[in-house]
Amino acid sequence: MNPANEISPATSIEALLGHTFSRPELLREALTHRSALQIRARRGGSNERLEFVGDRVLGLLVAEWLAERFPGEQEGDLGRRLAHLVSQPVLADVADAIGLGAALSAAPGEVRAGVKRRATVLADALEAALGALYLDGGLDKAREFVRRAWDGAMRAQLAPPKDAKTTLQEWAQARGLDLPSYLVASREGPPHAPRFVVTVSVGGATGTGRAGTKRAAEQAAATDLLRMLTA
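Now predict its structure.
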């Protein structure tokens, strides 16, 4: 095939997002892992700033969708549904389904180490892509993408999911194990926009979660570990 006729990763992602960017530098930034900035001078930055925007946009759009879809449910049930749909494992699954990892730019060493397959990296990149889509195309374009990409996850929620931490605790108690142990592995970012990385361990297995609050990161870690334990 003539290289001039090949479809670039960015073009493929534009098709998946359903939007042609008027500011392609936004999409380029969204697809740049921070490791790529360390190997050469590069215009723009990594996707961390756009991830911050996308996280807020996703929360708003999923909350709006849930309120429409489940008009009889109260805040508690809606909150548990929301926490699940914006959790790291679900984001990683959506990112994997649309092939986002293949379009990411990262340092060669990180690529060989499998960075493009890591759940945390995929989830962050998806939020960044959504942030770029919102900034370039507006809320309607972002809504169209979210409702298309999260449709399967939304339909799978026949009943409000249980709180992940509670479910994990019940799982451990039913097997006579010690209660899950949570640890803040790191805190990143500026004070006004922190990112917590939390690990949880039980029965010799460990899960990891990352979110803008410690509580949300604990829930994401519990969800990650439950997925491994019940696979």
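The two ends are 41 Å apart (CA to CA).
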